[in-house]
Design a protein that fits this description.
Layout lengths: L5 E6 L14 H18 L1 H9 L2 E11 L8 E11 L3 E12 L2 E16 L6 E2 L4 H7 L15
Antiparallel strand pairs: 1-3, 2-5, 3-4, 4-5, 5-6
Helix pairs in contact: 1-2
Length: 152
């Protein structure tokens, strides 16, 4: 069975740590954005083209809960899943997994709520989630999420 998440692999660098040597918390949020960008680039290039045109993906809410600390040269797997799909908004969850010699430890869990908008910056309005994005996300749904309930 294929994994139900989109994975972004990351090696922590010194520039992502604080004076004590632990990863500074804001980097977890940056990695969520990077994972989302890589998903679009790899799995939904047509949606990426829309983003470069007039589609805007506004982050409405972001959070992260920390379970363990990580430091420079730790290898991470950031795993994104779709947890909610509405008409104009969607929500992702992110598991941050430290990978060491094949062993995996969940070190943090995050969430991100996104609104789709279109139009010029002076008149941006909510927009339906592009069908291409919904289709690209289907394999990465949280167990039990019913995408078929989405109405036109």
């Amino acid at each position: 069975m294929a994994d139900d998440y989109f994975e972004y692999r990351h090696m922590v660098g010194f520039e992502e740590t604080n004076l004590v040597g632990n990863v500074y918390y804001v980097n977890y949020l940056r990695w969520q954005g990077r994972c989302r960008e890589m998903f679009l680039q790899q799995k939904a290039p047509d949606v990426l083209a829309e983003v470069q045109d007039d589609l805007k993906l506004f982050t409405l809410k972001v959070d992260c809960e920390f379970f363990a600390e990580i430091t420079a040269f730790d290898e991470l797997s950031i795993r994104m899943r779709l947890s909610e799909l509405g008409q104009t908004q969607l929500e992702f969850t992110f598991d941050y997994v430290k990978v060491t010699d094949g062993a995996e430890v969940l070190i943090a869990r995050g969430r991100q709520r996104i609104a789709c908008m279109r139009g010029p910056n002076t008149n941006t309005v909510p927009s339906r989630i592009p069908e291409g994005l919904a289709r690209a996300l289907e394999p990465y749904t949280t167990r039990g999420l019913a995408l078929s309930g989405r109405t036109a």
